[in-house]
Every structure is written in C-alpha cells, then in structure tokens.
Amino acid sequence: MASSLTKDSVRPGNPGSEKTFFGHPRGLATLFMTEMWERFSYYGMRALLPLYLVAPGGLHLSAASATAIYSVYVSLVYLLALPGGWFADRLLGPRKTVALAGFIIMLGHLTLALPSAGTFYAGLGLVAIGSGLLKANISTMVGHLYNGPDDARRDGGFTIFYVGINLGAFAAPLVIGTIGENVNWHLGFALAALGMALGLGQFLLGGRHLSERSSHVPTPLTAEEKVSTLRKSALWAAVAIVFYAIVGFSGAYTLNWLLVPITVAGLVIPVLVIARIKRDKDLDRTEQSRMTAYIWFFVAAAVFWMIYDQGGSTLSIFADSSAKNTIFGWDFPVSWYQSVNPVMIMALAPVFAWLWLALNRRGKEPGTAVKFASGLVLVGASFFLFLAPLGIADGGHKAAALWLVAIYFVQTVGELTLSPVGLSVTTKMAPAKYASQMMGVWFLAVTAGDATTGLLSIAGVDLNTTGIVTLEAAVAVVAGVAVLMYRKKVKELMGDVH
C-alpha cells in the first residue's frame, strides 16, 4: 500500500501528515489496514468455527448444537456493538477503545488456540467482546478524518474502507481455513491471533495520522456516574457468578444455561431499545412517524440476516457432510466457501453503485422499500435454490459445489440491495436525539436474526432439512411481498426521507 501514498499539500481533515492515501487523509491507510487485519482474524476464525464444532478432531458436537453456538456468537458480536459505542462515548474515546478491542480480540484467538473445550468458549467470549468494541468505533474514526458530512471525499473514503473489510474477509478462509482444516485446528486459530496482532501493531504505529477527535471522549462520565456504573456492573457480575456457581455445583449445568440467556437477550434487547426510542416524548411528530417506518425496515432486515448468516453455519455444515467440494477434479477446503461472498461483493458493488446512479438519472431508481423487498425475496430465493442440493443429498449423492456457489451468489445480490440501503436509511431516519446511537440499533437487526436461528437450533430444530429450509424461504418471500404491498404507507411515514 505504501506505493499509493503521494506527497500532497496539507489539507484540513488530513491530520498530522502531508501524505495522502489515494487522495484521502493518511489516517485512512491506518484504519484500512487495521480493519483488514481484524476482519482477516474474525472471518478466518468464523470460517473454521462450525467445522471445528462438528469435527471428530474438534468438539464433535451435533449440527444443531454447532449452529446454535455459531448463531449465538455472531448475534453477541452485534449486540455488543451498542455498549461498545457507549464505552467509547463515555469512558475512553474511540481511539483507545479500538486499541483495547484489538488486544482483547488477539487474546481471544490465542485462547481459542489452546486445546481445551473450556478455554475455547472463553476465547469465543473474548473475541465477541473485542469485536463489539471495535465494530462500534472504527467507522466513527474514519468519519473523523473528514471535514464533516459535506466533505466531498467522505463517501469515497468509506468505499475504500469497505474494500479493506472485504479483502480481509476474502483472504482469511483461504489462509486460516486451509491451515485449520488441513494441518491443525488450533494452529488456524493462532493464525487469526497473528492477523489481529499485525492489525493492532500498525494501528499503534500509525496512530499519529489519526484525527485528534478520535482521542476525545464526547460525553465523559462524571465521578458520580463512574461510581454508580462500577457499582451496578459489579452487582450484575456478582449475580451472574453466584447463579452459575450454584448451577455448576448442583451438577445441572449444560451449555444451554449459557446459550439460552444470550439468545433471549438477543431477541428482547432490540425490542426494548426500539420501544424506548419510540416512546420518547422528546421526539416530534415527524421523528415518531419515521421511527414507525423504520420498524418495517428493522423487521425486514432481521428476517434477511436470519437466513443470510446461515451461509456460515447451515450451508457450511451441509457442505462438510453432503457436497462434492471439488472443481474440475481439484479438492478444496470447506472453509473456502466463505471467500465467495466477499469476492462477489467486491466485483458487484461497483456495478450496483453504477446501476442506482443510472436509474436515478432517469428518475427510475427504486425506493428504499422496493430495494428491501427485493433483498428479502432474493434471500428467500437462495433457500428455495438450497432445496436442490438438499434433494440430491437426500437421494444418497453428493451435491456439486456450484450449487452452493449459486446460493452464495443470490444471497450476495440480495445483500447489495438491502445492506448498504439499510445503513443509509438508518442515518437518514435517525431522530436527532439518537443520531449517534441508531447505527447500533441497525446492528441489532443482525442480532435479532441470528438469535432467532440460535433459538431454533437450541430447541433441536435441524435447519438442514427440506421442510425447515422451505419454511424459512417462504417467510422471507412473504415478508418481501408484504413490504412491497405496503410500500406507499411506509413511504408516507418516511416523510421527506428518500
């Protein structure tokens, strides 16, 4: 990346350096590389996770248990993004919080690398905590590099940053997945720790190029608030320790004692957060109307992510047991399927950006509700497509790898019609009072979707069956049709937001 740094005059929003990164503030290179390595570690571990959980040389769990653990883990990462933002806003500021997050993630992966079931779950918890802290704040730091929302370079900067995410996500399964599956599971997890160490190291070394705003604590806790927060945290921690100690010593403890509370929280907390915002008396009529419309998008997104994120669990476990993981006679590791989505994102995202602009110039660009409906129908269609390889496997044969690639392709197209649009509409429809918190609310849609999958798996539902896959696909398509049918009502509630 160093070859892309060119001398340039000092500009506002380009703190601490005369160099630029593709014409952007030099700090973008620091954040780009940090996020790339963090995503390398995260997606590499995530590609191995369900396979390790079911493998005879791993934890050798059932497919349902593996899917439950995977889903609960992913939902927890996004759930913790909300307190992660609070932590930076009230205690450390984004820059110190991201540094702390990187260390916790690295420690979590090292813990996963230890050959013990007990330390494995502790490692998952550490990675989830660190990811929640980092996810909530690193994008905020990208925004700090620019002169407010009107800086002409801002959108381009976030686009470059998004490329870093997908580069890390693409490379991770190819490297970490291969080593984990073919050499040693725990060595694969150790490689994820190395990736995060590289990201953390360059973040600390390149910190001088970041904006001073990233070191600022926006609304620091008062001394009284610190004492109160510490007291409440200690109380809840003590309650949890005593409760699980009693359950453990009684001999009644199973993994569900941990998974069920997290899953329930993943469903209840999003409802409580949205209800609290909706009931806020400080919101004017326009903001109340927009929040009503936003609930439609939130529920639609939760249904979407419920199916989409099974690409890393349900589909991966199916590929491990029932697919021919070969192309032109060449065998490849199952974890490599997880590289399909990021490479397709990088290929198709510019196409969709061009398409929306071209349609907009002609006055034919679909509205937000239509794009959401399209995303839901497409993710539903991907699971209807999944019925074909399921049928092949039921007949006693191995399904071709291209069936799974086709499913990931349809899901990626669905993601591009819904996810970027969801991020955009979240910022546009956020009430002024909750402007900085609404991105965390959007992440809660992912939490709710994955928590639903986790709850089904905990209940013993086999998600790799024709009946369940058909039901999920139908739910997504019906939800998409419902959004399409009520789009005029939703548009009316959105007011002047387009």
TrEMBL record:
Location within or outside the cell: Cell membrane; Membrane
Its membrane topology: Multi-pass membrane protein
TM regions (residue ranges): 43-62, 68-88, 97-114, 120-138, 159-179, 185-205, 234-252, 258-277, 289-308, 336-357, 369-388, 400-418, 439-461, 467-486
Keywords assigned by UniProt, alphabetized: Cell membrane, Membrane, Transmembrane, Transmembrane helix, Transport
UniProt keyword S-adenosyl-L-methionine present: no
Pfam families documented for this protein: PTR2
Gene3D superfamilies hit by this protein: MFS general substrate transporter like domains
PROSITE patterns: PTR2_2
InterPro entries cross-referenced by the UniProt entry: Dipep/tripep_permease, MFS_trans_sf, MFS_Transporters, POT_fam, PTR2_symporter_CS
Family from the record: Belongs to the major facilitator superfamily. Proton-dependent oligopeptide transporter (POT/PTR) (TC 2.A.17) family.
PANTHER family: PROTON-DEPENDENT OLIGOPEPTIDE FAMILY TRANSPORT PROTEIN, RESISTANCE PROTEIN MDTM, PUTATIVE-RELATED-RELATED
Name of the featured protein: MFS transporter
Annotated source species: Streptomyces lannensis
